[in-house]
Write a structure and sequence with these properties.
Layout: H1 2-29, H2 36-44, H3 55-78, H4 90-113, H5 118-148, H6 152-160, H7 164-182, H8 187-210, H9 235-255, H10 260-265
Amino acid sequence: MSIGSIFLAFYLVATFIYSWLFLRPALSANKGRAGLTGMIAAVLGRGTWQGQNLLKPVAVLTLILAMIIALYTGAEVAIVAARVLWSSYLVPVFFLITALLGAGSLSLLIARIIGEDSTTLNILSRYNRWSALLSLGVLALWFVLATFTHGSEASALIQLQGSVHWQLNLATLLILLLIPAMLSSYASKFSLLSALSGLAVTWFSRWIIFIDGQTIPKYGAGFYTYDLPLGTEGLLGMVGVFGLWLFLAIVLYEFLPWNNKIESQV
């Protein structure tokens, strides 16, 4: 956890720097604007330096840090030997690839909302397709290891093969992955479906690994039961996090000088 907190701090700093560099031209252009937007632009857009030559290097650094966090999160789970479903070297890889799928799906969703052209939608849909195919490849490799080796994957398969609940989990995950994998040729028509299914994969895969994974007993037979709490420690907490994200999105949209194309089409 201590190592992860260091990477997370660096990632947040890199994200803010990337966002600031991305908005520098718009901030400079809105220095004289009245109201709070003009005040923010005057502070954050101070000076004539644009820094656009640093935009791509900082973007690459931010992406690398994001990938490290995804891998580290998976590694923290994979190191738990007491739960055979978690104890696999494929867990960090699966977390990383599905995180990339989620990022592409969110980009595709935003592109669809702001009315991007079909070329952009096609590019993002193809990215989603390859991310989904790689995720399916990791799942296939897990089943190969579970079938032909005697490691933790095989022990997990023995535990889960008689559970209808886990069969439904797997079927749902496969269907959600097949949607972005198969819709690349129809990007303009089904980009929204591809984006939503990719985001669903990112959430659902972590839910079944983290939450449903705890219903598998460490020792003994049978499965534990899990009921989602309705309070702040459960459903209400999820709604609160989503509300916080929505609030921040509204504030950023209202008070930062995005380009005119986005402002006119949202």
